[in-house]
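All the exercises in this workshop are built on plain-text protein records. The record below serves as our worked example for the rest of this section.
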Amino acid sequence: MPAACALRGIYTCHKLAHPSLAFSRISTCQKSIRPTVRVFTTSPWRQKDDTAVKTAQQETKVSPAEPTKSPTVKKERVDPLLAEQTVSNKEQRKADWAIIKDMAHYLWPKDDFGTRFRVGLSVALLVGAKVLNVQVPFYFKSIVDSMNIDFAAVGGTVVTVAGATIFASLEISLVCGILTWQYGFKFALITAATMVGYSAFTILTTSWRTKFRKAANAADNKGATVAVDSLINYETVKYFNNERYEVGRYDAALKNYQDASIKVATSLAFLNSGQNLIFSSALTAMMYYGADGVATGQLTVGDLVMINQLVFQLSVPLNFLGSVYRELRQSLLDMETLFNLQKVNVAIKEPENAKPLMLTGGGIKFENVSFGYRLDRPILRNLNLEIPAGKKIAIVGPSGCGKSTILRLLFRSYDVQGGRILIDGQDIRDVQIESLRKAIGVVPQDTPLFNDTIEHNLKYGDLEASPEKVEAAAKRAKVHDIIQKFPDKYATMVGERGMMISGGEKQRLAIARLLLKDPPFLFFDEATSALDTHTEQALLGNINSILKEKARTSIFVAHRLRTIYDSDIIIVLKDGVVAEMGTHERLVDSGGVYSELWSAQEMLFIDEEQEKSEEKKKQDRKRA
Protein backbone atom coordinates (compact mmCIF):
# COMPACT_ATOMS: atom_id res chain seq x y z
CA MET A 1 0.00 0.00 0.00
CA PRO A 2 0.69 2.58 -1.09
CA ALA A 3 -1.68 1.93 -3.98
CA ALA A 4 -4.73 2.85 -1.84
CA CYS A 5 -2.87 5.87 -0.37
CA ALA A 6 -1.81 7.11 -3.79
CA LEU A 7 -5.29 6.60 -5.30
CA ARG A 8 -6.93 8.37 -2.36
CA GLY A 9 -4.44 11.22 -2.73
CA ILE A 10 -5.26 11.58 -6.43
CA TYR A 11 -8.95 11.39 -5.70
CA THR A 12 -8.59 14.18 -3.16
CA CYS A 13 -6.75 16.34 -5.71
CA HIS A 14 -9.60 16.09 -8.18
CA LYS A 15 -12.27 16.67 -5.55
CA LEU A 16 -10.77 19.77 -3.95
CA ALA A 17 -12.96 21.91 -6.22
CA HIS A 18 -15.67 21.06 -3.69
CA PRO A 19 -13.93 20.57 -0.31
CA SER A 20 -16.86 19.19 1.62
CA LEU A 21 -17.50 16.60 -1.10
CA ALA A 22 -13.84 15.73 -1.28
CA PHE A 23 -13.50 14.99 2.41
CA SER A 24 -16.75 13.08 2.57
CA ARG A 25 -15.53 10.93 -0.32
CA ILE A 26 -12.21 10.40 1.42
CA SER A 27 -13.96 9.16 4.56
CA THR A 28 -16.17 6.87 2.47
CA CYS A 29 -13.12 5.46 0.69
CA GLN A 30 -11.38 4.78 3.98
CA LYS A 31 -14.41 3.05 5.44
CA SER A 32 -14.60 0.74 2.44
CA ILE A 33 -10.96 -0.19 2.72
CA ARG A 34 -10.77 -1.10 6.36
CA PRO A 35 -13.07 -1.35 9.39
CA THR A 36 -12.45 1.63 11.64
CA VAL A 37 -12.91 2.47 15.28
CA ARG A 38 -15.87 4.73 16.03
CA VAL A 39 -15.76 6.91 19.12
CA PHE A 40 -19.11 8.42 20.04
CA THR A 41 -19.43 11.48 22.24
CA THR A 42 -22.56 12.55 24.05
CA SER A 43 -23.15 15.43 21.68
CA PRO A 44 -25.34 14.81 18.61
CA TRP A 45 -23.60 17.57 16.69
CA ARG A 46 -20.08 16.14 16.65
CA GLN A 47 -18.97 14.41 13.51
CA LYS A 48 -17.58 11.04 14.43
CA ASP A 49 -13.96 10.38 13.76
CA ASP A 50 -14.39 7.31 11.59
CA THR A 51 -10.87 7.49 10.34
CA ALA A 52 -9.05 7.38 13.66
CA VAL A 53 -7.41 4.07 12.89
CA LYS A 54 -6.33 3.41 9.31
CA THR A 55 -4.43 0.54 7.74
CA ALA A 56 -0.68 0.64 7.34
CA GLN A 57 -1.16 0.57 3.59
CA GLN A 58 -2.63 4.08 3.92
CA GLU A 59 0.26 5.35 6.04
CA THR A 60 3.63 6.37 4.77
CA LYS A 61 5.35 7.06 8.08
CA VAL A 62 4.58 4.64 10.84
CA SER A 63 6.00 3.66 14.19
CA PRO A 64 5.43 0.25 15.68
CA ALA A 65 4.00 -0.12 19.13
CA GLU A 66 6.05 -1.93 21.73
CA PRO A 67 5.52 -5.66 21.49
CA THR A 68 3.54 -7.23 24.29
CA LYS A 69 5.30 -9.93 26.26
CA SER A 70 3.87 -13.37 25.67
CA PRO A 71 4.94 -16.68 27.14
CA THR A 72 4.99 -18.25 23.69
CA VAL A 73 6.43 -15.37 21.73
CA LYS A 74 9.96 -14.06 21.81
CA LYS A 75 10.58 -10.36 21.69
CA GLU A 76 10.84 -9.42 18.05
CA ARG A 77 13.18 -6.89 16.56
CA VAL A 78 11.37 -3.78 15.41
CA ASP A 79 11.28 -3.43 11.65
CA PRO A 80 13.27 -0.28 10.83
CA LEU A 81 10.96 0.38 7.88
CA LEU A 82 8.11 0.84 10.37
CA ALA A 83 10.05 3.12 12.67
CA GLU A 84 8.48 6.55 13.14
CA GLN A 85 10.34 9.27 11.35
CA THR A 86 10.35 12.28 13.62
CA VAL A 87 10.48 15.63 11.90
CA SER A 88 10.24 19.13 13.27
CA ASN A 89 7.14 21.23 12.80
CA LYS A 90 9.06 23.53 10.48
CA GLU A 91 10.17 20.64 8.28
CA GLN A 92 6.64 19.24 8.26
CA ARG A 93 5.22 22.59 7.18
CA LYS A 94 7.76 22.79 4.37
CA ALA A 95 6.84 19.29 3.24
CA ASP A 96 3.11 20.10 3.35
CA TRP A 97 3.63 23.29 1.37
CA ALA A 98 5.66 21.43 -1.25
CA ILE A 99 2.87 18.87 -1.60
CA ILE A 100 0.27 21.62 -1.98
CA LYS A 101 2.36 23.25 -4.71
CA ASP A 102 2.69 19.93 -6.51
CA MET A 103 -1.04 19.39 -6.17
CA ALA A 104 -1.74 22.86 -7.62
CA HIS A 105 -0.38 21.73 -10.99
CA TYR A 106 -3.16 19.14 -11.16
CA LEU A 107 -5.84 21.41 -9.68
CA TRP A 108 -5.06 24.36 -11.99
CA PRO A 109 -3.30 22.90 -15.07
CA LYS A 110 -1.87 25.40 -17.52
CA ASP A 111 -3.08 23.80 -20.74
CA ASP A 112 -6.40 22.39 -19.57
CA PHE A 113 -9.03 25.12 -19.86
CA GLY A 114 -11.88 22.71 -19.10
CA THR A 115 -10.50 21.76 -15.69
CA ARG A 116 -9.75 25.37 -14.79
CA PHE A 117 -13.26 26.43 -15.80
CA ARG A 118 -14.84 23.71 -13.64
CA VAL A 119 -12.68 24.65 -10.65
CA GLY A 120 -13.53 28.34 -11.02
CA LEU A 121 -17.22 27.62 -11.45
CA SER A 122 -17.23 25.40 -8.36
CA VAL A 123 -15.58 28.11 -6.26
CA ALA A 124 -18.03 30.73 -7.55
CA LEU A 125 -21.00 28.51 -6.71
CA LEU A 126 -19.65 27.85 -3.24
CA VAL A 127 -19.16 31.56 -2.57
CA GLY A 128 -22.62 32.33 -3.92
CA ALA A 129 -24.18 29.67 -1.72
CA LYS A 130 -22.45 31.06 1.35
CA VAL A 131 -23.59 34.60 0.56
CA LEU A 132 -27.18 33.44 0.20
CA ASN A 133 -26.98 31.47 3.44
CA VAL A 134 -25.59 34.43 5.35
CA GLN A 135 -28.46 36.64 4.14
CA VAL A 136 -31.08 34.37 5.74
CA PRO A 137 -30.50 35.61 9.33
CA PHE A 138 -31.12 39.20 8.17
CA TYR A 139 -34.55 38.16 6.91
CA PHE A 140 -35.26 36.52 10.26
CA LYS A 141 -34.21 39.73 12.02
CA SER A 142 -36.60 41.86 9.93
CA ILE A 143 -39.50 39.47 10.42
CA VAL A 144 -39.02 39.21 14.17
CA ASP A 145 -38.55 42.96 14.60
CA SER A 146 -41.84 43.59 12.79
CA MET A 147 -43.53 41.24 15.27
CA ASN A 148 -41.73 42.62 18.31
CA ILE A 149 -44.58 44.90 19.45
CA ASP A 150 -47.11 42.10 19.44
CA PHE A 151 -44.87 39.79 21.42
CA ALA A 152 -43.20 42.26 23.78
CA ALA A 153 -45.11 40.80 26.68
CA VAL A 154 -43.39 37.50 26.36
CA GLY A 155 -39.90 38.97 25.88
CA GLY A 156 -38.67 37.37 29.07
CA THR A 157 -39.80 34.00 27.81
CA VAL A 158 -37.80 34.51 24.61
CA VAL A 159 -34.66 35.21 26.63
CA THR A 160 -35.28 32.14 28.76
CA VAL A 161 -35.79 29.87 25.76
CA ALA A 162 -32.74 31.32 24.02
CA GLY A 163 -30.65 30.66 27.11
CA ALA A 164 -31.96 27.10 27.34
CA THR A 165 -31.04 26.38 23.74
CA ILE A 166 -27.43 27.36 24.32
CA PHE A 167 -26.59 24.01 25.89
CA ALA A 168 -28.42 22.15 23.12
CA SER A 169 -26.04 23.65 20.58
CA LEU A 170 -22.68 23.36 22.30
CA GLU A 171 -20.89 22.35 19.11
CA ILE A 172 -21.76 25.25 16.87
CA SER A 173 -18.85 26.92 15.15
CA LEU A 174 -17.30 30.32 15.32
CA VAL A 175 -19.48 33.27 14.50
CA CYS A 176 -17.39 35.83 12.67
CA GLY A 177 -17.80 38.52 10.10
CA ILE A 178 -21.39 39.69 10.54
CA LEU A 179 -21.36 39.44 14.34
CA THR A 180 -18.15 41.46 14.46
CA TRP A 181 -19.43 44.10 12.06
CA GLN A 182 -22.97 44.28 13.44
CA TYR A 183 -22.49 44.13 17.21
CA GLY A 184 -19.10 45.54 18.00
CA PHE A 185 -16.11 44.87 20.23
CA LYS A 186 -17.44 42.27 22.66
CA PHE A 187 -18.65 39.89 19.97
CA ALA A 188 -15.51 40.57 17.93
CA LEU A 189 -13.30 39.65 20.89
CA ILE A 190 -15.28 36.49 21.66
CA THR A 191 -15.24 35.48 18.00
CA ALA A 192 -11.49 36.07 17.59
CA ALA A 193 -10.61 34.33 20.87
CA THR A 194 -12.79 31.35 20.02
CA MET A 195 -11.32 31.05 16.53
CA VAL A 196 -7.74 31.21 17.77
CA GLY A 197 -8.37 28.90 20.72
CA TYR A 198 -10.31 26.32 18.74
CA SER A 199 -7.84 26.28 15.83
CA ALA A 200 -4.76 26.13 18.05
CA PHE A 201 -6.23 23.41 20.25
CA THR A 202 -7.29 21.34 17.22
CA ILE A 203 -3.93 21.65 15.46
CA LEU A 204 -1.82 20.93 18.53
CA THR A 205 -3.96 18.04 19.72
CA THR A 206 -4.19 16.50 16.25
CA SER A 207 -0.40 16.68 15.89
CA TRP A 208 -0.03 15.07 19.31
CA ARG A 209 -2.51 12.31 18.35
CA THR A 210 -0.59 11.48 15.18
CA LYS A 211 1.91 9.28 17.00
CA PHE A 212 -0.90 7.17 18.46
CA ARG A 213 -2.52 6.75 15.06
CA LYS A 214 0.81 5.77 13.51
CA ALA A 215 1.40 3.25 16.27
CA ALA A 216 -2.06 1.76 15.69
CA ASN A 217 -1.43 1.56 11.96
CA ALA A 218 1.92 -0.14 12.50
CA ALA A 219 0.38 -2.65 14.91
CA ASP A 220 -2.47 -3.34 12.50
CA ASN A 221 -0.01 -3.86 9.68
CA LYS A 222 2.07 -6.17 11.84
CA GLY A 223 -0.96 -8.28 12.69
CA ALA A 224 -1.99 -8.54 9.05
CA THR A 225 1.56 -9.46 8.05
CA VAL A 226 1.78 -12.20 10.68
CA ALA A 227 -1.59 -13.64 9.67
CA VAL A 228 -0.91 -13.62 5.92
CA ASP A 229 2.63 -14.93 6.35
CA SER A 230 1.43 -17.82 8.51
CA LEU A 231 -1.36 -18.75 6.10
CA ILE A 232 0.83 -18.63 3.00
CA ASN A 233 3.48 -20.76 4.70
CA TYR A 234 0.98 -23.05 6.41
CA GLU A 235 2.84 -26.16 5.28
CA THR A 236 6.05 -25.02 6.99
CA VAL A 237 4.07 -24.22 10.14
CA LYS A 238 2.63 -27.74 10.18
CA TYR A 239 5.93 -29.41 9.30
CA PHE A 240 7.51 -27.97 12.45
CA ASN A 241 4.34 -28.21 14.59
CA ASN A 242 4.42 -24.49 15.39
CA GLU A 243 0.70 -23.70 15.28
CA ARG A 244 0.70 -22.47 18.89
CA TYR A 245 3.71 -20.28 18.24
CA GLU A 246 1.99 -18.60 15.28
CA VAL A 247 -1.21 -18.12 17.28
CA GLY A 248 0.87 -16.51 20.02
CA ARG A 249 2.51 -14.17 17.52
CA TYR A 250 -0.87 -13.14 16.17
CA ASP A 251 -2.31 -12.65 19.67
CA ALA A 252 0.63 -10.44 20.59
CA ALA A 253 0.13 -8.36 17.45
CA LEU A 254 -3.59 -7.99 18.19
CA LYS A 255 -2.80 -6.96 21.77
CA ASN A 256 -0.47 -4.25 20.48
CA TYR A 257 -3.18 -3.08 18.11
CA GLN A 258 -5.75 -3.05 20.90
CA ASP A 259 -3.53 -0.98 23.18
CA ALA A 260 -2.74 1.49 20.42
CA SER A 261 -6.41 1.77 19.44
CA ILE A 262 -7.37 2.57 23.03
CA LYS A 263 -4.85 5.41 23.01
CA VAL A 264 -6.30 6.67 19.74
CA ALA A 265 -9.84 6.57 21.14
CA THR A 266 -8.81 8.24 24.40
CA SER A 267 -6.95 11.03 22.64
CA LEU A 268 -9.94 11.55 20.34
CA ALA A 269 -12.24 11.87 23.34
CA PHE A 270 -9.86 14.45 24.80
CA LEU A 271 -9.91 16.36 21.50
CA ASN A 272 -13.70 16.36 21.30
CA SER A 273 -14.05 17.39 24.95
CA GLY A 274 -11.68 20.29 24.51
CA GLN A 275 -13.49 21.47 21.40
CA ASN A 276 -16.81 21.21 23.22
CA LEU A 277 -15.45 23.25 26.12
CA ILE A 278 -14.22 25.99 23.81
CA PHE A 279 -17.51 26.10 21.95
CA SER A 280 -19.66 26.10 25.06
CA SER A 281 -17.61 28.84 26.73
CA ALA A 282 -17.66 31.10 23.67
CA LEU A 283 -21.31 30.61 22.88
CA THR A 284 -22.38 31.02 26.47
CA ALA A 285 -20.61 34.37 26.59
CA MET A 286 -21.99 35.39 23.21
CA MET A 287 -25.58 34.55 24.03
CA TYR A 288 -25.24 36.16 27.47
CA TYR A 289 -24.20 39.48 25.96
CA GLY A 290 -26.93 39.17 23.36
CA ALA A 291 -29.61 38.53 25.97
CA ASP A 292 -28.24 41.34 28.14
CA GLY A 293 -28.45 43.69 25.16
CA VAL A 294 -32.09 42.78 24.66
CA ALA A 295 -32.82 43.31 28.35
CA THR A 296 -31.20 46.77 28.35
CA GLY A 297 -32.82 47.79 25.09
CA GLN A 298 -29.56 48.02 23.11
CA LEU A 299 -30.58 45.06 20.97
CA THR A 300 -33.91 43.91 19.71
CA VAL A 301 -35.40 40.46 19.97
CA GLY A 302 -34.72 40.21 16.24
CA ASP A 303 -31.02 40.80 16.92
CA LEU A 304 -31.00 37.93 19.38
CA VAL A 305 -32.78 35.69 16.89
CA MET A 306 -30.31 36.78 14.21
CA ILE A 307 -27.37 35.88 16.44
CA ASN A 308 -28.91 32.52 17.21
CA GLN A 309 -29.68 31.90 13.53
CA LEU A 310 -26.16 32.84 12.46
CA VAL A 311 -24.82 30.39 14.97
CA PHE A 312 -26.89 27.58 13.51
CA GLN A 313 -26.25 28.76 9.95
CA LEU A 314 -22.49 28.62 10.37
CA SER A 315 -22.35 25.62 12.67
CA VAL A 316 -22.55 23.00 9.91
CA PRO A 317 -19.47 24.04 7.87
CA LEU A 318 -17.43 25.16 10.88
CA ASN A 319 -18.22 22.06 12.92
CA PHE A 320 -16.13 20.15 10.41
CA LEU A 321 -13.05 22.27 11.04
CA GLY A 322 -11.39 19.71 13.27
CA SER A 323 -12.29 16.72 11.14
CA VAL A 324 -11.34 18.56 7.94
CA TYR A 325 -7.96 19.38 9.42
CA ARG A 326 -7.41 15.75 10.36
CA GLU A 327 -8.47 14.64 6.89
CA LEU A 328 -6.27 17.27 5.29
CA ARG A 329 -3.27 16.11 7.29
CA GLN A 330 -3.96 12.53 6.30
CA SER A 331 -4.48 13.49 2.66
CA LEU A 332 -1.21 15.39 2.64
CA LEU A 333 0.54 12.30 3.97
CA ASP A 334 -1.09 10.17 1.30
CA MET A 335 -0.27 12.65 -1.45
CA GLU A 336 3.26 12.83 -0.13
CA THR A 337 3.50 9.12 -0.85
CA LEU A 338 2.17 9.69 -4.35
CA PHE A 339 4.53 12.52 -5.19
CA ASN A 340 7.48 10.75 -3.60
CA LEU A 341 6.79 7.75 -5.83
CA GLN A 342 6.83 10.06 -8.82
CA LYS A 343 10.16 11.50 -7.72
CA VAL A 344 11.84 8.14 -7.14
CA ASN A 345 14.88 7.69 -9.33
CA VAL A 346 14.12 4.66 -11.46
CA ALA A 347 17.23 2.55 -11.85
CA ILE A 348 16.22 1.14 -15.24
CA LYS A 349 15.64 3.98 -17.68
CA GLU A 350 15.46 4.32 -21.42
CA PRO A 351 16.72 7.35 -23.36
CA GLU A 352 14.19 9.86 -24.65
CA ASN A 353 14.94 8.96 -28.26
CA ALA A 354 14.88 5.20 -27.67
CA LYS A 355 13.77 3.15 -30.66
CA PRO A 356 12.01 -0.22 -30.72
CA LEU A 357 14.18 -3.31 -30.82
CA MET A 358 14.67 -4.31 -34.47
CA LEU A 359 15.34 -8.03 -34.85
CA THR A 360 17.10 -9.33 -37.93
CA GLY A 361 18.27 -12.69 -36.66
CA GLY A 362 18.39 -12.84 -32.89
CA GLY A 363 22.10 -12.91 -32.06
CA ILE A 364 23.22 -11.91 -28.56
CA LYS A 365 26.64 -10.60 -27.58
CA PHE A 366 28.18 -9.77 -24.18
CA GLU A 367 31.14 -7.39 -24.34
CA ASN A 368 33.25 -7.05 -21.18
CA VAL A 369 30.15 -7.25 -18.99
CA SER A 370 30.65 -6.76 -15.26
CA PHE A 371 27.89 -6.87 -12.67
CA GLY A 372 27.26 -7.47 -9.00
CA TYR A 373 24.22 -7.13 -6.79
CA ARG A 374 26.61 -5.58 -4.29
CA LEU A 375 29.59 -3.53 -5.34
CA ASP A 376 31.85 -5.43 -2.95
CA ARG A 377 30.74 -8.79 -4.38
CA PRO A 378 30.96 -8.96 -8.19
CA ILE A 379 29.10 -11.79 -9.92
CA LEU A 380 30.24 -11.34 -13.53
CA ARG A 381 33.76 -10.15 -14.32
CA ASN A 382 34.48 -8.80 -17.82
CA LEU A 383 32.30 -11.48 -19.36
CA ASN A 384 32.68 -11.90 -23.12
CA LEU A 385 30.14 -14.15 -24.74
CA GLU A 386 28.45 -14.56 -28.11
CA ILE A 387 25.19 -16.47 -28.62
CA PRO A 388 24.35 -17.25 -32.26
CA ALA A 389 20.83 -16.63 -33.53
CA GLY A 390 18.41 -19.55 -33.64
CA LYS A 391 20.55 -21.84 -31.48
CA LYS A 392 19.87 -23.71 -28.27
CA ILE A 393 22.31 -22.51 -25.63
CA ALA A 394 22.87 -24.01 -22.20
CA ILE A 395 24.53 -22.26 -19.27
CA VAL A 396 25.81 -24.47 -16.47
CA GLY A 397 28.12 -24.13 -13.53
CA PRO A 398 28.22 -24.19 -9.74
CA SER A 399 25.72 -22.22 -7.66
CA GLY A 400 26.39 -18.50 -7.50
CA CYS A 401 28.44 -18.30 -10.69
CA GLY A 402 25.98 -15.96 -12.44
CA LYS A 403 23.78 -18.22 -14.57
CA SER A 404 20.43 -16.66 -13.63
CA THR A 405 22.05 -13.23 -13.50
CA ILE A 406 22.73 -13.41 -17.23
CA LEU A 407 19.02 -13.88 -17.90
CA ARG A 408 18.10 -10.97 -15.62
CA LEU A 409 20.55 -8.69 -17.40
CA LEU A 410 19.17 -9.68 -20.80
CA PHE A 411 15.65 -8.90 -19.57
CA ARG A 412 16.95 -5.59 -18.14
CA SER A 413 15.77 -6.33 -14.64
CA TYR A 414 19.17 -4.82 -13.89
CA ASP A 415 21.64 -2.81 -15.94
CA VAL A 416 25.24 -3.85 -16.41
CA GLN A 417 27.80 -1.99 -14.34
CA GLY A 418 30.44 -2.34 -17.01
CA GLY A 419 30.52 -3.26 -20.68
CA ARG A 420 27.40 -3.72 -22.78
CA ILE A 421 24.94 -6.31 -24.09
CA LEU A 422 24.01 -6.30 -27.77
CA ILE A 423 21.08 -7.91 -29.57
CA ASP A 424 21.53 -7.84 -33.33
CA GLY A 425 24.10 -5.08 -32.81
CA GLN A 426 21.80 -2.90 -30.68
CA ASP A 427 22.74 -1.99 -27.12
CA ILE A 428 19.74 -3.05 -25.05
CA ARG A 429 20.08 0.14 -22.98
CA ASP A 430 19.32 2.20 -26.10
CA VAL A 431 16.10 0.44 -27.11
CA GLN A 432 12.59 0.72 -25.70
CA ILE A 433 12.20 -1.48 -22.64
CA GLU A 434 8.71 -2.55 -23.68
CA SER A 435 9.88 -3.79 -27.08
CA LEU A 436 12.81 -5.64 -25.47
CA ARG A 437 10.69 -7.45 -22.90
CA LYS A 438 8.02 -8.21 -25.48
CA ALA A 439 10.64 -10.12 -27.44
CA ILE A 440 11.69 -12.23 -24.44
CA GLY A 441 9.85 -15.03 -22.68
CA VAL A 442 11.03 -16.40 -19.34
CA VAL A 443 10.20 -19.47 -17.27
CA PRO A 444 11.75 -18.63 -13.86
CA GLN A 445 12.88 -20.99 -11.12
CA ASP A 446 9.96 -20.00 -8.92
CA THR A 447 6.71 -20.25 -10.87
CA PRO A 448 4.21 -17.77 -9.44
CA LEU A 449 0.60 -18.15 -10.53
CA PHE A 450 -2.38 -15.88 -10.02
CA ASN A 451 -5.14 -16.96 -7.66
CA ASP A 452 -7.44 -17.57 -10.59
CA THR A 453 -8.33 -20.29 -13.06
CA ILE A 454 -5.89 -22.36 -15.08
CA GLU A 455 -7.19 -20.73 -18.25
CA HIS A 456 -6.56 -17.24 -16.86
CA ASN A 457 -2.98 -18.14 -15.95
CA LEU A 458 -2.33 -19.67 -19.36
CA LYS A 459 -3.84 -16.77 -21.28
CA TYR A 460 -1.56 -14.38 -19.43
CA GLY A 461 0.97 -15.20 -22.14
CA ASP A 462 -1.49 -14.03 -24.81
CA LEU A 463 -4.58 -12.25 -23.51
CA GLU A 464 -6.32 -12.55 -26.89
CA ALA A 465 -5.63 -16.27 -27.35
CA SER A 466 -8.55 -18.46 -28.37
CA PRO A 467 -9.48 -21.57 -26.33
CA GLU A 468 -8.12 -23.76 -29.13
CA LYS A 469 -4.77 -21.98 -29.02
CA VAL A 470 -4.64 -22.33 -25.23
CA GLU A 471 -5.28 -26.06 -25.43
CA ALA A 472 -2.63 -26.48 -28.14
CA ALA A 473 -0.02 -24.82 -25.90
CA ALA A 474 -1.10 -26.97 -22.96
CA LYS A 475 -0.71 -30.13 -25.05
CA ARG A 476 2.80 -29.18 -26.10
CA ALA A 477 3.66 -28.54 -22.45
CA LYS A 478 2.33 -32.00 -21.52
CA VAL A 479 -0.26 -30.57 -19.11
CA HIS A 480 -3.50 -30.82 -21.11
CA ASP A 481 -4.27 -34.39 -20.02
CA ILE A 482 -3.77 -33.46 -16.37
CA ILE A 483 -6.09 -30.47 -16.70
CA GLN A 484 -8.80 -32.66 -18.22
CA LYS A 485 -8.78 -34.81 -15.08
CA PHE A 486 -9.73 -31.86 -12.88
CA PRO A 487 -13.49 -31.51 -12.19
CA ASP A 488 -13.60 -27.97 -13.62
CA LYS A 489 -10.90 -28.58 -16.22
CA TYR A 490 -9.53 -25.23 -17.45
CA ALA A 491 -11.83 -23.37 -15.04
CA THR A 492 -10.08 -24.96 -12.04
CA MET A 493 -8.80 -22.47 -9.46
CA VAL A 494 -5.09 -22.88 -8.73
CA GLY A 495 -5.13 -21.15 -5.32
CA GLU A 496 -2.81 -18.56 -3.84
CA ARG A 497 0.45 -18.66 -5.84
CA GLY A 498 -0.71 -21.98 -7.29
CA MET A 499 -0.65 -23.88 -4.00
CA MET A 500 -3.56 -26.11 -5.09
CA ILE A 501 -1.48 -27.84 -7.75
CA SER A 502 1.87 -29.61 -7.66
CA GLY A 503 5.23 -28.05 -8.44
CA GLY A 504 5.58 -30.04 -11.64
CA GLU A 505 2.14 -28.95 -12.82
CA LYS A 506 3.01 -25.32 -12.10
CA GLN A 507 6.18 -25.60 -14.16
CA ARG A 508 4.30 -27.10 -17.08
CA LEU A 509 1.69 -24.34 -16.90
CA ALA A 510 4.49 -21.77 -16.95
CA ILE A 511 6.02 -23.42 -20.02
CA ALA A 512 2.63 -23.53 -21.75
CA ARG A 513 2.18 -19.84 -20.97
CA LEU A 514 5.57 -19.10 -22.51
CA LEU A 515 4.76 -21.13 -25.63
CA LEU A 516 1.51 -19.19 -25.93
CA LYS A 517 3.43 -15.90 -25.91
CA ASP A 518 5.75 -17.28 -28.61
CA PRO A 519 8.55 -14.68 -28.32
CA PRO A 520 11.74 -14.63 -30.43
CA PHE A 521 13.87 -15.38 -27.34
CA LEU A 522 13.03 -18.13 -24.85
CA PHE A 523 14.79 -18.34 -21.48
CA PHE A 524 14.38 -21.38 -19.24
CA ASP A 525 15.75 -21.06 -15.70
CA GLU A 526 15.61 -24.54 -14.14
CA ALA A 527 12.23 -24.84 -15.85
CA THR A 528 11.91 -28.63 -15.45
CA SER A 529 13.52 -29.18 -12.05
CA ALA A 530 10.24 -30.43 -10.49
CA LEU A 531 9.43 -32.96 -13.22
CA ASP A 532 10.15 -36.67 -13.25
CA THR A 533 12.64 -37.95 -15.81
CA HIS A 534 10.05 -39.43 -18.19
CA THR A 535 7.86 -36.30 -18.29
CA GLU A 536 10.90 -34.06 -18.49
CA GLN A 537 12.32 -35.84 -21.54
CA ALA A 538 8.95 -35.82 -23.33
CA LEU A 539 8.46 -32.12 -22.61
CA LEU A 540 11.99 -31.21 -23.69
CA GLY A 541 11.42 -33.13 -26.91
CA ASN A 542 8.39 -30.94 -27.67
CA ILE A 543 10.30 -27.78 -26.80
CA ASN A 544 13.23 -28.78 -29.00
CA SER A 545 10.93 -29.40 -31.95
CA ILE A 546 9.37 -25.95 -31.50
CA LEU A 547 12.79 -24.30 -31.30
CA LYS A 548 13.96 -25.98 -34.50
CA GLU A 549 10.68 -25.39 -36.31
CA LYS A 550 10.62 -21.65 -35.57
CA ALA A 551 14.39 -21.08 -35.32
CA ARG A 552 14.10 -19.48 -31.89
CA THR A 553 17.10 -18.38 -29.86
CA SER A 554 16.88 -20.13 -26.51
CA ILE A 555 18.92 -20.19 -23.31
CA PHE A 556 18.60 -22.99 -20.76
CA VAL A 557 19.98 -22.62 -17.24
CA ALA A 558 20.23 -26.01 -15.57
CA HIS A 559 21.98 -28.02 -12.89
CA ARG A 560 20.92 -31.41 -14.25
CA LEU A 561 23.16 -31.82 -17.25
CA ARG A 562 21.01 -34.56 -18.79
CA THR A 563 18.41 -31.88 -19.64
CA ILE A 564 20.82 -29.81 -21.75
CA TYR A 565 23.38 -32.26 -23.17
CA ASP A 566 21.83 -31.93 -26.65
CA SER A 567 22.33 -28.13 -26.77
CA ASP A 568 24.12 -26.57 -29.71
CA ILE A 569 26.49 -24.75 -27.36
CA ILE A 570 27.11 -25.38 -23.66
CA ILE A 571 28.65 -22.51 -21.70
CA VAL A 572 30.34 -23.34 -18.41
CA LEU A 573 30.62 -20.45 -15.96
CA LYS A 574 32.95 -20.33 -13.01
CA ASP A 575 33.70 -17.33 -10.80
CA GLY A 576 31.86 -14.98 -13.15
CA VAL A 577 33.77 -15.83 -16.32
CA VAL A 578 33.46 -18.41 -19.10
CA ALA A 579 35.53 -21.42 -18.07
CA GLU A 580 34.60 -23.64 -21.01
CA MET A 581 32.36 -23.58 -24.05
CA GLY A 582 31.45 -26.13 -26.69
CA THR A 583 29.29 -29.15 -27.44
CA HIS A 584 28.59 -31.91 -24.95
CA GLU A 585 30.98 -34.39 -26.57
CA ARG A 586 33.79 -31.88 -26.82
CA LEU A 587 33.47 -30.75 -23.20
CA VAL A 588 33.32 -34.31 -21.87
CA ASP A 589 36.46 -35.23 -23.79
CA SER A 590 38.31 -32.11 -22.60
CA GLY A 591 38.38 -33.32 -18.99
CA GLY A 592 37.56 -29.90 -17.57
CA VAL A 593 34.89 -28.56 -15.22
CA TYR A 594 32.00 -29.83 -17.31
CA SER A 595 33.50 -33.30 -17.55
CA GLU A 596 33.81 -33.47 -13.76
CA LEU A 597 30.21 -32.36 -13.27
CA TRP A 598 28.97 -34.85 -15.84
CA SER A 599 30.89 -37.75 -14.32
CA ALA A 600 29.63 -36.95 -10.82
CA GLN A 601 26.01 -36.73 -11.96
CA GLU A 602 26.26 -39.88 -14.05
CA MET A 603 27.56 -41.86 -11.09
CA LEU A 604 24.63 -40.63 -9.00
CA PHE A 605 22.25 -41.45 -11.83
CA ILE A 606 23.64 -44.97 -12.17
CA ASP A 607 23.38 -45.54 -8.42
CA GLU A 608 19.77 -44.32 -8.42
CA GLU A 609 18.91 -46.57 -11.34
CA GLN A 610 20.50 -49.57 -9.60
CA GLU A 611 18.53 -48.85 -6.42
CA LYS A 612 15.31 -48.61 -8.42
CA SER A 613 16.11 -51.86 -10.19
CA GLU A 614 16.83 -53.70 -6.94
CA GLU A 615 13.65 -52.32 -5.36
CA LYS A 616 11.65 -53.51 -8.33
CA LYS A 617 13.17 -57.00 -8.09
CA LYS A 618 12.25 -57.19 -4.39
CA GLN A 619 8.67 -56.24 -5.14
CA ASP A 620 8.50 -58.85 -7.89
CA ARG A 621 9.78 -61.54 -5.48
CA LYS A 622 7.16 -60.62 -2.89
CA ARG A 623 4.43 -60.89 -5.48
CA ALA A 624 5.76 -64.24 -6.63
Remarks:
- The chain is about 55% helix and 10% strand.
- The chain has two domains: 66-339, 364-591.
- The domain at 364-591 is CATH 3.40.50.300 (Rossmann fold).
- The two ends are 65 Å apart (CA to CA).
